Amino acid sequence: MGFWNSRKAFPTVLLQLLLQVWTIIFCSAADKSRSYVLDLTPDTFPAAITKHSMLLVEFYAPWCGHCKRLAPEYERAAQLLAETSPYVKLAKIDADKHKSVLSKYDIQGFPTLRLFLNGVPEPEYEGSRNSDALVSYVRRATAPDISSLSSEAEVDSFQKNVSDSSPIFLGFGLTESVLKEPATKFRKKAWFAVVQDVSDDLMVKFDFDKTPALVVTHPEADERAVYYGPFRGADLEQFVQQNLLPLVTKMSSETLKHLREDGRPIVLGIYSGRHPESASHFMKMLKAASPANRDFVFSHVDAAIWPAFVKPFGVDKRTILPTVVIWNGLAEYSAHEDEEAFIARDAQTQITKFLQDFKANKIKRIKLKEPSFLEKAKEIIWGLPTVYMLVTIFILVWLLQGCAWKEIIRDGSMDEQQQRERLRRSDLEGDLGSDRGSRDSAEPLVVSRKGSCGGCK
């Protein structure tokens, strides 16, 4: 009897299971199609910045390639913030369609990201355009200049919630007032916190042996530095400023701005990633030379990956790598006279001596090499989106073909004119020859020869 009941119940159970599966699939599909980014218009814009105390707005154009690349990262950032910080909203507005917002909010290009705090716009966001950086930027805008932590667990949680590559300054045995000035000045470039309860475990974990101490960590570079004072005036600010970047920063379009803003001369190590063993040794030497030369900011770049960047420094396929140049961040740099100075095993010593000679004004300054007109044109063309590049190539080919056809037609018409001129002259000479023959019978042979090309009758 139980068997038959179970057989009768089986279709019902199967139907319920199928319904549940379809419900899960439908909901997940609906969730994927759902956007966490508010789509604004000039009519809804004022109400949105009034309703939401913190609103990050993207001013975009549908045809903009950079906007298209930003779209999935922007959506991902909106979803992350919706899950962790629901009071923060992300929005977008088609500024190309609604041109009235361009002048109102000083939009110079696409995409432009601006954060509105209680309806008041912040300066344009110029950081990395990935979801983690966007989330970190918004969180930092809402966070206090200095956080107060009371335990090791809170320290761990604070470090975990920092989702970008910014340095973290932790004050052990310090009050908030001590770090107030540098924390306010550099709040957009670093995180600051003070730890109230300093345990032995924290001292071991962060590698300091007394308090008060200020420890800076760079999570991505796995680096830290300790400062024991004095905790006042220019010395404290100098330590913070010199440690906003790792010992050696990878040169990229994103870090270039920070390196220039630092103000110190940039020691740029140039190597080729095609030779990993040599590059690894060179990077170790560059990093080892950095702590003793804090008057400089150190960076590195792979010439094989970014040849256009290193070319103005005189680096091409014939240059012996690795090498080091000292760049002022503008239009001047200095290079070592010995091209093989930095390939030896004592590269660290060579780097240090090079920097000392630079400070002693023993190294000449060189002007950056300006790209030629053709190089600039090539960079512009290859920097265009694919569609625009294809259209540009098509127009150039069309113009060249047009010129070629004009030349062919011109040449053809000239040939035809020349032939007609020859025939005209032949006819004329033939007629003259006939006349001469009739007047002077003493020269029939000459007349006959001249008339043969003219078609004498």
TrEMBL record:
Compositionally biased tracts (Basic and acidic residues): 419-442
Ranges where the Thioredoxin domain occurs: 15-143
UniProt KW keywords: Disulfide bond, Isomerase, Membrane, Redox-active center, Repeat, Signal, Transmembrane, Transmembrane helix
Annotated region described as Disordered, given as residue ranges: 419-457
Organism per entry: Riccia sorocarpa
Alphabetical list of Pfam families matching this protein: Thioredoxin (PF00085), Thioredoxin_6 (PF13848)
Protein name: Thioredoxin domain-containing protein
Recorded family membership: Belongs to the protein disulfide isomerase family.
Signal peptide: 1-29
Annotated TM spans: 380-400
InterPro entries xrefs: PDI_thioredoxin-like_dom, Thioredoxin-like_sf, Thioredoxin_CS, Thioredoxin_domain
Molecular function terms, GO-annotated: isomerase activity
